[in-house]
Design goal:
globular; 228 residues; Methyltransferase like 27; seven-stranded mixed β-sheet; 7 helices; alpha/beta
Length: 228
């Protein structure tokens, strides 16, 4: 039992150290150094966001999954693509800020194309209006990707295509979540997309902050781009 506790405490220490990274370069360096242990560490956290996002997309996508092209933004090592593959999706392009994460995504063999880009600081290196599904899991939170980046996710999606996003609902991320939901609603009012589903999940992942115990909650948002 103590080994499990030590493992969780080690992972907790790693993640809390990331909060000390303030510049984009420091954040990229952190993820580069974490890449090798990332999959096993998030498994210790019982990190469910990739499977929850994939389930949401699968529940509402009615097109040809084998032909659909998916843009996986902040793809990391490929956890989301791995889940979507189980649901019949086969064509993936991934974008991430960390070259070390991209190397592992490349080794997975899931992606047809992978590109390095600092999200929120550089334009997405993609063709607008091209993707059947655009997904971003884990990166929409305070200190990571700015809220207004969701507009580029929408621009990347085909009319009639889907955008799936996740965020945490823990105390550190409350203000960010409010801003995110305000932006999502504003874009709906502008006629850019329509909300298909919002799923609030109580047991999102194990809490790592000193102020929280047990599990933190989170949310999955699924939007459909309108024909404008």
């Amino acid at each position: 039992m103590s080994a499990v506790t030590n493992t969780f405490e080690n992972v907790k220490a790693v993640i809390l150290s990331a909060h000390k990274s303030s510049t984009s370069r420091e954040k990229v360096n952190f993820y580069n150094s974490w890449a090798e242990n990332y999959d096993q560490d998030v498994a210790v956290l019982d990190y469910r966001a990739p499977s929850l996002a994939a389930n949401s997309i699968s529940s509402h996508f009615n097109g040809d999954r084998e032909a659909a092209v998916v843009l996986d933004v902040a793809c990391g090592t490929g956890l989301v693509a791995k889940q979507l593959r189980k649901h019949g999706f086969k064509h993936f392009m991934g974008i991430d800020g960390s070259e070390a994460m991209l190397d592992l995504a490349r080794e997975s063999g899931l992606y047809q194309d992978l590109k390095q880009s600092l999200l929120g600081e550089e334009p997405l290196p993609v063709q607008w209006g091209f993707f059947d599904v655009v997904v971003i899991v884990g990166a929409l939170s305070v200190g990571q990707v700015p809220v207004d980046a969701v507009r580029n996710l929408c621009k990347s999606t085909k009319p009639g295509g889907y955008v799936c996003m996740t965020t945490r609902s823990n105390c550190d991320n409350v203000d960010y979540k409010v801003s995110l939901e305000r932006e999502l609603k504003q874009m709906e009012e502008e006629g850019l997309w329509t909300c298909v589903d919002v799923t609030e999940v109580e047991d999102w992942e194990r809490a790592v902050s000193e102020q929280e115990d047990g599990y933190i909650s989170g949310a999955v948002y699924l939007y459909k781009k309108l024909y404008v």
